[in-house]
Amino acid sequence: MKLIFATGNAAKLREIRQIFDVPGVEILSMKEAGIDVDVEENGLTFEENALIKVRAIHKLVPDALIMADDSGLEVDALGKFPGVFSARWYDGHDGSYDVKNAQLIRLLSDFSGEERSARFVCAIAAVLPEGDELVVRAAMEGQIGYEIAGENGFGYDPIFFLPQYGKTSAEISPEEKNAISHRGKALRSMRDKLMAIKAFD
């Protein structure tokens, strides 16, 4: 069975394949599925954006199982900003995360300890071939670190400090991160929901 995951992010797709491991299910990116479309994510919540993406791809490939996620970083001291704008708030979709990470650290220069609380949020939506929709949401709690640290992960991982590890999510192993991450939790929740309705049979 083929599952099309609506993303062009290679690092994210690698995580998804590691976590969403269902025998007999092949996970394809949009490019691998021959889909070339730019979907405008103009929702106000992570759930809305995930649904916008899966609905758009479902119209193009109605006989496939489609999944999409929308994820981002909520910083409490900034009123949960950047939230749904996490990918584009500072210098656009293609901008360097080194720049975004450094800017967030600067914005929190007057805050310390628990005042720097933040979370990664992930909403995943799925559309089945018959049109039924499922949505799940999960989060990973942490803090914004004081410096960029770590080579693993991507995006905001190098500044997302996990007190229980004493490290950023870019400093722990991919296996450790997948076990506790927002995306890992959401993917496992979605996998369980799909298996419960025998979507893979």
Tell me what the structure shows.
This protein is an alpha+beta fold. It has one domain (2-196): Maf protein, CATH 3.90.950.10. It has helices spanning 10-19, 46-60, 97-107, 174-180, 182-196; strands at 2-5, 26-29, 65-75, 81-82, 117-127, 133-144, 160-162, 167-168. Strands 1, 2, 3, 4, 5, 6, 7 and 8 form an 8-stranded mixed sheet that branches. Helix 4 (174-180) packs across helix 5. The longest helix is centred in the first third of the chain and has 15 residues, at 46-60. The protein is globular, with a radius of gyration of 17 Å. The N and C termini lie close together (9 Å).
CATH class: Alpha Beta
What does the overall shape look like?
Answer: globular
Domain count: the total is: 1
Q: Could you tell me the radius of gyration in angstroms?
A: 17 Å
**Record field, number of beta strands:** 8
CATH topology: Maf protein
- Derived from helix and strand composition plus strand pairing, the structural class reads alpha+beta
Question: Approximately how much beta-strand content do the residues carry?
Answer: 15-25%
Whole-Å distance between the termini? 9 Å
